[in-house]
Amino acid sequence: MIGNSVWIQFFFIIFLIIFHNLQASTFAFDEDRLIRIKFKVHIINGLSSNEYPLIIHCYSNDDDLGEHTLWMNNEFKFRFGNHVWRLTHFWCVMRCGLNKKTIDVFRSGVETKTCRRTGNCFWSAREEGFYFSNDNQSWVKRYDWF
After folding, report:
1. Does 16 fall in a domain?
2. What domain range is 116 assigned to?
3. d(CA 53, CA 100)
4. pLDDT tens for the 146 residues of the chain, in order
5. Which ranges constitute the DSSP H helices of 1-146?
6. What angle do CA 13, 87, 44 make, to 5 degrees?
7. What is the CATH number of the domain that holds 137?
């Protein structure tokens, strides 16, 4: 039977490993990681004109990131630590002229997997809808405006 001191040492080592990972440079976006704790979400105004700006307001269950006005090719970005024991979820309300759409920009289990390699989740609002990329080069349409 294992004594209490062995269990205490075991949990202390696990704690040190987790603490080290939280403090380590987890923003090294060129590394492949099996577990990534820190992420960055980029929202880009990919619209073709400045007739109407892209107005965004982003939230999580814990935070209100405020309203931001993005003109053509402008970007809003934010960094956060992914919760280990509960779901992390960020969504943004996006408006351009009369168009309005709420989209999920980060959900644990979805973007955690697709953005793990780079630590970046890119979103581009365009006339045709909302496009996603994890490298700012390969884009996939995820949402329509309507």
Report:
1. no
2. 37-143
3. 12
4. 556 777 777 776 666 556 545 443 333 333 444 455 789 999 999 999 999 999 999 999 889 999 999 999 999 999 998 876 778 999 999 999 999 999 999 998 888 888 988 999 999 999 999 999 999 999 999 999 98
5. 4-23, 111-114
6. 115
7. 2.60.40
